[in-house]
Amino acid sequence: MAKASFQRNQRVWVESVGAWAVVERIEPVWAKGFEEPVKVTYDVGLGRPFLAHELQAEEETKADAGQEETRWRLMRARNKWQSAGDCAHHPYPGTYPVVVTDAGDWGGWRVPGAEYDRDPRKIEFQARLIASAPGLRTLVRELLASIVEAPEDAPPALQEFARKALVIERYLLESPAEIPSPAPLAAE
User: Fold this and answer.
1) Less packed terminus of the chain by CB within 10 Å, N or C?
2) Residue-wise pLDDT tens digits, 17-53
3) What does the DSSP assignment read for 32-96?
4) Distances in Å between the alpha carbon of 57 and those of 20, 22, 44, 80, 89?
5) What is the pTM of this model?
6) Backbone angles phi, psi at 150, to 5 degrees
């Protein structure tokens, strides 16, 4: 008899397609005279059902685990192009925000000085929003987990929220498509 190898909403690698997908439905195949399903297929939204041997579970590597623990943080960098007196209208004169996404205090998000000077309050908000993104994502994942546990108990507004959140999560997790190389020019 067959048992389910994957759970609903679990991210899996589909080897035959070469892409990541999320298990949308678990489809047991029943046969007359058997108390348990004879096989289990998985609908991952790719047009056909897949068997368990065609899918691989996502394994969390140590690098992935460390990335979740790393806190993105907002730091301030010295403005090399303007003195504090020249930019007294800025919220933090003489500095601009930098969002650091790496434990080594480098890598992340920075803004050009001219753009910061144009609208410093907007850029400060964007920096705080970006630095807060991992925490916001964790909150949404926790809410999604509680909705998935008992979807029939969730009000329709929360079910719609869960659908929208899953679309965004899929967008975050999908790898960018390769850019096709331009066709070579024909020699004249």
Assistant:
1) C
2) 788 888 888 888 888 888 888 888 999 888 899 998 8
3) TT-SS-SEEEEE-SSSSEEEGGGEEEPPPPHHHHHHHHSPPEEEEEE-SSS-TTTTTTSSSTTEE
4) 10, 10, 13, 48, 52
5) 0.53
6) -145, 75
